[in-house]
Amino acid sequence: SIDLHDEHASGEYFFSNATAGIGYHFDINKNSFGLGVFSRFCAASEFSKDASEVFNTALNEQNLDYGRTYKIDLDFSTFIIKGVEVFFERRATERFTYSAKLQVFSASELLDGSANGFIFYDGDITSGLQYDVFYESDPILEREVTSENGSGVSLGLAFRYAWSNKLSFGLAVDDAIGKISWPNAPVTVANI
After folding, report:
1. Whether the Cβ atoms of residue 23 and residue 85 lie closer than 8 Å to each other
2. Which is nearest to 21 in space by CA: 174, 140, 165, 137?
3. Is 26:32 a contact under the CB 8 Å cutoff?
4. Low-confidence residues in the chain, pLDDT < 70
5. How far apart are CA 11 and CA 166, in angstroms?
6. 128-184: pLDDT as tens digits
């Protein structure tokens, strides 16, 4: 899995978290409650500069640089979650509000793994790559696989402090605590 807090060498990282949902919200005194359903696409990737160049070259159907060795370091993870969300917010004082949301969900479309090693091009491609991939459908060998959805739970926390009617400060942390389990996800571990 990807640790976005780790040091990055000359490479890049990509993160996407797109959510859509609908729900119902009601107030009782200084408290707000909500219940809804949601769907979220999550993706993250960390990759070396050489890995980016190799994939970009392949996507554009171009040749790699002749006589060059490319160092490949790639970690990636994508999945979709769908579930229900329970929301609670409390106005503790006139200026301070805090909230929490609990999400319980099923997860699908798993693709999670890494590839490390090298690719050398001298008219032919020579590689020394080790990769491991967990998946719902086999992206490399295209084998028929049976995969069950994962399941998970997540807790989000937030607070807001209003210094005045025009100035406030807030902090929200989605997935402050959470876990997804993929008990029967197929995996491929290989050297090429």
Report:
1. yes
2. 174
3. yes
4. 1-11, 136-143, 186
5. 41
6. 888 777 776 666 666 677 777 889 999 999 999 999 888 999 999 988 999 998 887
| Kind plus residue range of the DSSP H or E element containing 189 | strand 187-191
On the CB side of 27, how many CA atoms lie within 13 Å of its CA?
4
Q: Which helix (H) or strand (E) holds 138?
A: none
Q: What does R_g of the chain's alpha carbons equal in angstroms?
A: 22
DSSP at 39: E
DSSP class of residue 63?
A: P
Amino acid identity, position 156:
G
Q: Which tokens go with 66?
A: 């002749």
By C-alpha distance, which of 142, 22, 164 is closest to 82?
22
